[in-house]
């Protein structure tokens, strides 16, 4: 995990004579590999889900009572329990984790004839991995390793059940070999987790025999990954929001781990909205545009900035000889935008825009232009082999362009072009080292080399043909459709 800081700190409240201190290699044993801890020594499943990844563990071994005590049918006394007790903590932690522990278990006689153990465990959880996209939640789980409670060392049939809970939250849960979920933080995380939890632990020793009892509690910090979904189009519960009800010039892009929508409101303003998950949306900026309602919007990412262009035509006395404008602006966060000097490029609204080899590129009818700053542009060629363009992407360290008929070309430098085998005609996207195309019949294909294409999905459940645009976000292909002057959003999981 890149740039992640994860701190899962465990402590048990010190209330009597047993001290606390920093764990060191002298008294911290390494547990077997994290994956091996899913099953305990008896082969019992600790109920870690299929999508769970164990990040860190602590084993707390409780030893209570006098090992020299003789078995007796009489009930054990509180004094006997308190006379001999110990707690040993074993930590399994990668190099980027830190554990601290202090420990004690103490006993109170809460009512006549009842002896109840009552202890506390302090947990500090710090989790700052905000880059991992496939996360569903972070959880704290607890279970017993060897049995469903503390085991009698002379009479193992005598087992003392334990219960556990988070203070001020869920009621007590049985602490057995099936893991109990104590705490759950659901993604997405707009900021890291930094919490201190107090876990309460109790057990009823009223019917314990005069012997020593021992058991091990396993605490786990777990990352639940999003489940893999089937290759089937699913209609989103809510359509993605658009400010412009004509939808003809709406556009979507992904930047800073968010999906963004931008509407060209009749050429006067650009209205932005953004989301971390495609479900909950936030209003972004609204920028003065100064263009017209027939323009096209394109984006590219270069030097940690998002560059946005809108290309359209101005009013002209001669409709056979229109004049075109090219507006360009950039942002470091998608919220605050700066507009550059408007270059005179005279490219058509069908022009494509991308970033490649540390330059911005514009491709139009037979032309390729490049710039390092968005202001000064160089015409690299005026003899490119295409006459119209519908797609331009970067894949396999090459530029790829396609026209409306599915003819395709690629280039290593943006100047010299080679024709590729014909592509399926449609929207061209790049994801997970593959080229993806959703064609005019809305079938989905992919290719690993730009030569051989594999049909990925051929069926869908919508009735209205055609879509406004498509975008890949959160391991899904999303398409926006426009039936009956409304919108529908559909997604398909891709791998």
Describe the structure.
The protein has one helix spanning 78-83; strands spanning 6-12, 20-21, 52-64, 85-92, 101-102, 106-111, 114-127, 135-144, 150-152, 159-160, 162-166, 173-175, 180-186, 193-204, 213-225, 234-235, 251-255, 258-265, 269-275, 281-288, 296-302, 305-314, 323-331, 337-339, 352-356, 359-364, 367-371, 378-381, 391-395, 398-402, 408-411, 418-420, 426-431, 434-439, 444-447, 454-457, 469-473, 476-481, 488-493. The chain is mainly β. The protein has 2 domains: 6-225, no CATH class; 234-493, Neuraminidase, CATH 2.120.10. The strands form 9 sheets. Strands 3, 4, 8, 9, 10, 13 and 15 form a 7-stranded antiparallel beta sheet that branches. Strands 1, 6, 7, 11, 12 and 14 form a 6-stranded antiparallel beta sheet that branches. β37 and β38 form a beta hairpin. The two termini are 20 Å apart. 34% of the residues are buried. The model is unreliable at 1-47 (pLDDT under 50).
């Amino acid at each position: 995990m890149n740039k992640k800081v994860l701190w899962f700190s465990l402590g048990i409240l010190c209330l009597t004579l047993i001290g606390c201190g920093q764990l060191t290699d002298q008294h911290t044993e390494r547990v077997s590999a994290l994956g091996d801890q899913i099953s305990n020594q008896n082969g019992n499943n600790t109920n870690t889900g299929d999508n769970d990844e164990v990040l860190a563990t602590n084993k707390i071994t409780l030893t209570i009572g006098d090992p020299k005590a003789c078995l007796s049918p009489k009930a054990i006394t509180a004094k006997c329990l308190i006379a001999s007790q110990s707690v040993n903590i074993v930590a399994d932690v990668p190099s980027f984790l830190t554990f601290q522990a202090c420990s004690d278990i103490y006993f109170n006689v809460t009512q006549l004839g009842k002896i109840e153990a009552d202890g506390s465990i302090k947990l500090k959880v710090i989790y700052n991995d905000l880059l991992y996209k496939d996360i569903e939640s972070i959880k704290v789980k607890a279970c017993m390793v060897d049995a469903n409670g503390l085991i009698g060392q002379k009479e193992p049939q005598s087992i003392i059940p334990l219960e556990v809970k988070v203070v001020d939250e869920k009621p007590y849960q049985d602490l057995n070999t099936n893991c109990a979920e104590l705490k759950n933080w659901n993604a997405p995380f707009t900021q890291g987790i930094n919490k201190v939890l107090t876990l309460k632990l109790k057990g009823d020793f009223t019917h314990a025999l005069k012997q020593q009892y021992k058991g091990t509690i396993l605490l786990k910090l777990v990352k639940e990954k999003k489940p893999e979904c089937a290759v089937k189009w699913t209609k989103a519960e809510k359509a993605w929001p658009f400010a412009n009800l004509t939808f003809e010039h709406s556009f979507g892009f992904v930047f800073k781990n968010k999906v963004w929508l931008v509407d060209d409101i009749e050429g006067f303003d650009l209205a932005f909205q953004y989301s971390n998950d495609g479900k909950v949306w936030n209003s972004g900026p609204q920028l003065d545009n100064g263009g017209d309602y027939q323009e096209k919007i394109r984006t590219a990412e270069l030097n940690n900035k998002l560059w946005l262009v809108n290309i359209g035509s101005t009013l002209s006395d001669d409709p056979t000889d229109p004049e075109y404008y090219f507006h360009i602006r950039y942002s470091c966060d998608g919220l605050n935008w700066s507009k550059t000097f408007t270059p005179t490029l005279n490219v058509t609204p069908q022009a494509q825009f991308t970033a490649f080899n540390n330059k911005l590129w514009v491709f139009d009818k037979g032309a390729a232009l490049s710039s390092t700053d968005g202001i000064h542009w160089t015409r690299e060629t005026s003899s490119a082999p295409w006459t119209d363009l519908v797609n331009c992407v970067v894949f396999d360290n090459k530029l790829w362009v396609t026209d409306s008929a599915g003819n395709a070309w690629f280039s290593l430098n943006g100047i010299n072009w080679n024709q590729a085998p014909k592509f399926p005609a449609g929207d061209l996207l790049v994801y997970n080292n593959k080229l993806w195309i959703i064609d005019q019949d809305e079938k989905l294909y992919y290719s690993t080399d730009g030569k051989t294409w594999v049909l990925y999905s051929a069926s869908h459940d919508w009735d209205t043909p055609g879509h406004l645009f498509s975008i890949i976000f959160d391991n899904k292909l999303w398409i926006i459709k426009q039936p009956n002057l409304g919108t529908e959003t559909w997604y398909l999981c891709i791998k």
